[in-house]
Write a structure and sequence with these properties.
- The structure is a single chain.
- With 387 residues, the protein is α/β, with parallel strands linked by helices.
- The protein has two domains: 2-212 and 368-386, 3-Layer(aba) Sandwich (Rossmann fold), CATH 3.40.50.150; 214-354, DNA Methylase, Chain A, domain 2 (Alpha-Beta Complex), CATH 3.90.120.
- 32% of the residues lie in helices and 14% in strands.
- It contains 13 helices and twelve strands.
- The chain has helices at residues 12-19, 32-43, 100-110, 129-140, 152-165, 216-224, 228-233, 243-250, 264-267, 278-281, 337-343, 356-364, 369-386, and strands spanning 2-6, 23-29, 56-57, 74-77, 114-120, 173-181, 192-200, 214-215, 259-260, 302-303, 324-326, 332-334.
- A seven-stranded mixed sheet has the order 3-2-1-4-5-7-6, with helices on both faces. Strands 10-11-12 form a three-stranded mixed sheet, with no helix packed on it. It has a two-stranded parallel ribbon with strand order 8-9.
- Strand 11 (324-326) and strand 12 (332-334) form a beta hairpin.
Length: 387
Amino acid sequence: MKSIELFAGAGGLGMGLSQSGFHPEKIVEWDNWCCDTIRENKRSSVHPVASWPEPEQGDIRHFDFQSLEGKVALVSGGPPCQPFSLGGKHKAQADHRDMWNEAVRVVRETKPPAFVFENVKGLTRASFASYLAYIVHQLTYPELKRKADEDWLSHLARLEAHHTSGRESGLKYNVVYRVLNAADYGVPQRRERVVFVGFRSDLGIEWSFPEQTHSFDALLWDQFRGCEYLNRHKVDVAALGDPRLRARALRLPFRPATSAWRTVRDAMIGLPDPEHKKAEALHFHNHRYQPGARSYPGHTGSPLDLPAKTLKAGVHGVPGGENMLLRPDGSVRYFTVRESARLQTFPDDYQLHGSWTESMRQLGNAVPVELARVIGDGVASRLVEGA
């Protein structure tokens, strides 16, 4: 099934959707480093990027998509999230980086059977409630465009009036959104993103977000009750630390039916320590020790035996303080780019282009490949059934 990938970034969302059977006909991304990352992996024949078209670099506002009307099954992407990020300035619609209007325009011009967009959890904060409603209404009625002299609140009022009128003419999508924790779907990172999925209303497709497949309680059971985790990693229960987690595990009446959350230790299987085994680390792409990590209040790193905390893109060129490994002895070091890529479920042959800081920025903004695949599988199956 053909697709369009907008705001492609380092390629995480696109890779996961490609694994679900979608093939991008057009990839648009404004950032040079991200485009170079996609180009480099295309040249290296990394699956599935090897079959992608060359990314088209530039401002999405300068691209016309009308030639692809009726020719793609899916439009996907992650409109820049800085306007809504907890690490940003929270300007929302007043931020020049807000590209939701452009995402809606591409849907309007191509009229795909479905779309998938994602953004940071911060978009669902109470202070952004009206703008979140505005996004959903625009995605529902993409042909009801904002007028040249109309502010966004007036446009929202017009969209609301149309929605309550019951009129069904024109292009309409049935839209659902939900905050998903990537750890609940097998990603070794507690990363929450809000995902929007829409199906063209004339198709009559019923859809809901996939049920979670992994859980924290299942991890605790495997660590403190079933010994599966200890045997797999050849560690003693004392190495797991926090006695409160053991107490919670002992209160569980039975093992949950889900799989266990994947941990940092799980993600690092097979990777040599980059600080003490530098020669062995050279055999892995982007696996280089980066000095200078330090712990301070609010930035304490990720324990080995839990999913990682959310990787951050950082501010002013400095990766987020959470992008660190917290060792059992209390010391910290930065995750390497390769370790961070594993926490985002990129394959080991996928190379990030640019310096350590630049590569970490790309990963901090990325969608976990596995989360994208899970969502993509659900959307693809319904499109095939409804065809």
